[in-house]
Amino acid sequence: xxxxxxxxxxxxxxxxRNSSGxxxxxxxxxxEVDWPFFGEMxxxxxxxxxxxxxxxxxxxxxxxxxxxxxxxxxILQRDFASMAITREETGGRPVVIAxxxxxxxxxxxxxxxxxxxxxxxxxxGLNAVRExxxxxxxxxxxxxxxxxxxxxxxxxxxxxxxxxxxxxxIVDGEIVMRPDYAAKLKELGG
Length: 190
Known about the structure:
Oligomer: single chain
Strand order of the largest sheet: 4-3-2-5-6-7
Structural class: alpha/beta
Strand content: 25-35%
Number of strands: 10
Largest sheet: 6 strands, mixed
Order of helices and strands: EHEHEEEHEEEEEH
Distance between the termini: 53 Å
């Protein structure tokens, strides 16, 4: 019998690039995630999930949890859907604005978000999914950033995270670095 395949390599440190394409160093306290690093994180997360819990359907929490959720669902070759939870004001309590689909009924569900700190958004998502009577439900995030313990996570960090899909936004008709990211980088000396 052949030996088992070696474990996947650990995710590599992201190498952010500036507009000229040269590698630049992020300031201390910042994790700037690029697309290749994000892809490796999703592969590692999907493998952890597959080994311990093979879900039937993956639910991504919109907005940012939809991206890792869709990638993980694709790697696992599982159905994907989303639900939307938002905070109406910064620091406010999260609210469900579009609940999970009925396809979770009687199925093994995985809820995915990009980060979790206090777990307020994830707990709200869990309650919304449980109301639809799934067979089982577990949680996963790309980044565990606080005391809340999801069932699965790719990386635990207490640094400020800049994600590749929302690093740049349109402000006054121009594509610019997201203002809160720019302010945090300036604060941290970047």
